[in-house]
Design goal:
Elements (H helix, E strand, L loop, with lengths): L36 E4 L12 E8 L9 E9 L11 E6 L7 H9 L7 H6 E6 L14 H5 L9 H22 L8 H15 L3 E6 L1 H12 L4 E7 L8 H25 L10 H14 L2 E2 L18 E2 L1 H11 L5 H15 L17 H12 L7 H14 L8 H8 L22 E8 L5 H7 L6 E9 L9 H12 L8 E2 L2
Parallel strand pairs: 4-5, 4-6, 6-7, 7-10, 10-11, 11-12
Antiparallel strand pairs: 1-2, 2-3, 3-5, 8-9
Helix pairs in contact: 5-6, 7-12, 7-13, 8-9
Family: Belongs to the peptidase S33 family.
Pfam family, one: Abhydrolase_1
Organism: Paraphoma chrysanthemicola
Length: about 500
């Protein structure tokens, strides 16, 4: 599900599934006492598992006005099997990231076997997947696809380009409001954390949380608000919300650049690499220059007579597309992924850049709109002029010339300039005081959620243990290695790895 386009801030990839129904609209209704009923999901065969149960709960659009408008929060549950060989521990909430990632999708993928999970976890917990507000079933984010498809630079070089960027952002935000109503003002992560507390309270159990990538930020907001409700919490691929804009842009783009340089080293020497024996860094800069001068064709999306709002990708690829989308291709460092990236770069140099094409909302990527509608409620750009943005651009390009400052963080910062509704949850340092420690997990060389963020979050959580994977790639639980075993062991037993533990897989 991970999108690598400049129009998305998705931080983890799981395969998407069709919606359970038409987009849910919020309604004017007084809030009633929450109740949670589970039914079978047989009406939705695309969920691919007869074991899943579907549920929903009513929550307020604005938690500060609980008697006002409400909407339906949708979720699924995968109960532990009837023949489970281990004692039941409780319910485990899984959030796959984003903002925009679907918990329904994540748990449905586990139920269908698409995402392998250990038998110990499956036999110990009922797995809960909630679609956060603004995501798919829970008041899906809907905006104007034609405005989204307009190509503007996220690195404007002139006042005119900057004005086009700000104008597009403003019009896109206004289109979201026109289609979604007032709920678009309440898609922030604090509100989503309160939604999850409503589900936990309805279940009547302590919180067990596995937050992957952006799911770590959602979990941290929950822990700040409800520290006494937690049994176990894992933040895998840690996102820190309290840094300055400049810090965040620098931190992520330098992590991306370090991963890209390591790929170059592999590509120059590995027998399976289509770039073996070449100066790959030189090749990289030449490819960027070529795409900057003349966008490279994307034959896969060479549509004719189809209006922009009905296209699912762009018919060519420019320098920014390559810069932003290569980051996503580095998230997984398995050999076959490296081989693919090397071949994609060679193919692009020969005039076919379809592997770096940016997705548009008509492709089945429901997270595209959610990423921006949620993200602009959590990150408030402080750039108020072309000169301000230019100064920050120069700083990030100097920090990471290999990536020229590109990152998912930059995407969001640039895409929220001019956004019409004010953020509800601007960056702020947390002071989390839970009874038991929270487990932080990060790879040393994550190209998306930098190890620096994980270290920084230790200062915001009074009790935490940082488990380090001495490896590459984004997040660790999806890998079948020692780090995943340690995470599972903690979730089941509450036994933490020793502080300072470093694992190699």
């Amino acid at each position: 599900m991970r999108s690598t386009t400049p129009s998305s801030i998705i931080l983890l990839a799981l395969c998407a599934i069709p919606a359970l129904s038409a987009p849910i609209q919020h309604t004017l209704a007084p809030r009633t006492e929450n109740s949670l009923n589970w039914t079978d999901c047989s009406a939705y065969p695309w969920l691919r598992s007869k074991d899943l149960q579907c549920g929903n709960i009513t929550v307020p659009v604005d938690w500060a006005a609980p008697s006002g408008e409400t909407f339906t929060l949708r979720m699924v549950r995968l109960p532990r099997p009837a023949n489970a060989t281990r004692p039941r521990v409780g319910s485990l909430f899984i959030n796959p990231g984003g903002p925009g990632g679907s918990g329904v999708t994540a748990v449905a993928n586990i139920a269908s076997g698409f995402e392998p999970v250990s038998e110990e976890i499956l036999h110990s917990f009922d797995l809960i997947g909630v679609d956060p507000r603004g995501v798919q079933q829970s008041v899906e984010s809907i905006c104007d696809s034609a405005i989204w498809a307009e190509r503007v630079s996220l690195f404007p070089k002139t006042q005119e380009e900057y004005d086009r960027l700000v104008d597009k952002n403003r019009r896109l935000g206004e289109s979201c409001r026109a289609q979604m109503g007032s709920v678009v003002d309440h898609l922030d992560t604090i509100s989503a954390a309160r939604d999850h507390e409503a589900v936990r309270a309805a279940l009547g159990e302590d919180m067990n949380w596995l937050g992957i990538s952006y799911g770590s930020m959602l979990g941290a907001q929950y822990a700040q608000l409800f520290p006494g409700k937690i049994r176990t919490m894992v933040f895998d691929g840690v996102l820190q919300h309290s840094r300055s804009e400049w810090d965040n842009a620098r931190i992520e783009t330098t992590a991306y650049a370090a991963s890209l340089r390591k790929f170059f080293d592999w590509a120059e020497t590995n027998d399976e690499s289509a770039l073996k024996g070449r100066d790959v860094e030189k090749f990289w800069y030449e490819l960027l220059a070529k795409a900057r001068q003349t966008p490279i064709q994307n034959p896969w999306c060479n549509y004719t007579n189809i209006p922009p709002q009905f296209r699912d990708c762009r018919e060519d690829v420019n320098e920014e597309d390559i810069l932003f989308n290569t980051q996503g291709l580095l998230l997984t460092t398995r050999q076959q992924n490296r081989v693919f990236l090397a071949e994609a770069l060679v193919k692009a140099s020969q005039g076919n850049a379809d592997d770096f094409a940016s997705s548009l909302p008509m492709s089945f990527n429901p997270s595209l709109f959610a990423g921006i509608t949620i993200g602009c409620q959590d990150w408030a750009p402080t750039d108020s002029s072309f000169e301000d943005l230019q100064a920050k651009m120069r700083m990030v390009e100097e920090a990471a010339s290999l990536t020229k400052g590109a990152s998912q963080t930059w995407t969001l910062q640039a895409s929220c300039i001019g956004w019409p509704n004010a953020p509800k949850n601007p960056p702020a340092k947390l002071n989390i005081k839970t009874q038991d420690p929270i487990l932080l997990v990060n790879s040393l060389r994550d190209p998306s959620t930098s190890y620096e963020w994980a270290v920084g979050m230790q200062d915001e959580i009074e009790k935490s243990v940082l488990l380090t994977r001495n490896g590459d790639g984004h997040t660790s639980w999806s890998l079948s290695g020692a780090t995943r075993v340690a995470i599972d062991h903690y979730l089941i037993t509450e036994e933490l790895p020793a502080p300072g533990t470093v694992l190699d897989s």
